[in-house]
Design brief:
single chain; 14 helices; mainly alpha
Length: 308
């Protein structure tokens, strides 16, 4: 019990303190959520992904381990979601909304700070989280956009939308610069550092603002789908991650970091995509809200069980 409380107070509550500030300001003053989301989505996130990939020392062995984990883990999650979708007989835009709510984890503005707090900024575990963050940033901007539009928009329009996402260019650019050993001048590194320093606080504030703008009613229609989505993300995520690392023979801090990265709540990307493309926004908002709220217990429990 002492360990649980320690993790809750030192690892999880600090994140929610910043989110609460955003929540209160939204409720009392009202902020332009779309502007904040665009700042995170189009400026801070690509800058942070680029900066982390360019500056973090990641070995090819670690990259291969995490990539292997991610592919198998996502495949198992996808199959689980497909089974649930069939059992619930979901139609229209709901299958895509359900998959996105489970597959897209909040690896950036929740996963990155929880990794730094839980592992005390360990370079190895940070490297794991950076790779996961990169993959989770790439997925919503490609597959996510396609999935929420596939049932109502032509493919050419979808591809144009995907091509306009800056993060898909930031990732290969960072890798190319590292491979060829190109050193960025200070005139570029300094602003990148500023953006990185601003990211976590801004992202957590934005998450609080978005939660404050949501409807607080748990609509009866679709409530079962919301509950199942949250359970698959918060409970199924770390369980499937534990099974994946076991199957792949990954152990030590890398395994623990992968499991923790898989225990975080639903990504804001699923809600942003749902709102932007009008694909089950109410369901997506509720999955983000309830998974974030309940993650105080599940993420704390996951860290405690792993004895980090």
């Amino acid at each position: 019990m002492t360990l649980f409380l320690s993790i809750l107070l030192n690892n999880v509550i600090p994140l929610f303190f910043v989110m609460t500030i955003g929540f209160i300001v939204q409720r009392t003053r009202g902020l332009d959520i779309k502007t904040l989301s665009n700042i995170n989505f189009y400026i801070l996130s690509p800058a942070v992904v680029f900066n982390l990939l360019y500056s973090t020392d990641i070995s090819m062995a670690l990259f291969g381990q995490v990539m292997g984990f991610f592919v198998l883990f996502m495949l198992m999650q996808y199959l689980l979601c497909s089974l649930v979708i069939r059992l619930l007989r979901l139609e229209g835009g709901m299958p895509a909304a359900m998959r996105n709510s489970v597959l897209f984890a909040n690896s950036a503005n929740y996963g990155l700070p929880i990794n730094e707090l839980a592992f005390s900024g360990n370079p190895l575990t940070l490297g794991v989280q950076v790779i996961i963050l990169m993959l989770q940033s790439f997925l919503p901007n490609t597959y996510g956009i396609y999935s929420v539009n596939a049932h109502q928009v032509n493919r050419r329009a979808i591809l144009r939308t995907i091509a306009g996402q800056p993060v898909i260019y930031a990732i290969p650019l960072a890798f190319l610069l590292r491979i060829f050993g190109v050193e960025l001048p200070s005139t570029i590194q300094i602003p990148l550092h500023y953006l990185y320093a601003a990211f976590i606080g801004m992202a957590l504030l934005t998450l609080g603002v978005q939660l404050g703008a949501m409807k607080w009613t748990f609509a009866k229609k679709g409530s079962l789908s919301v509950a199942i989505s949250v359970a698959m993300r918060l409970i199924g995520g770390p369980l499937l991650a534990a099974l994946t690392v076991l199957l792949l023979g990954i152990d030590g801090l890398v395994a623990k970091a992968l499991i923790v990265s898989s225990s975080v709540p639903t990504s804001l990307s699923s809600m942003i995509l749902a709102v932007q493309f009008d694909n089950e926004p109410e369901f997506s908002s509720q999955t983000v809200f309830f998974s974030t709220l309940l993650s105080t217990l599940t993420v704390t429990g996951t860290i405690a069980i792993l004895n980090i």
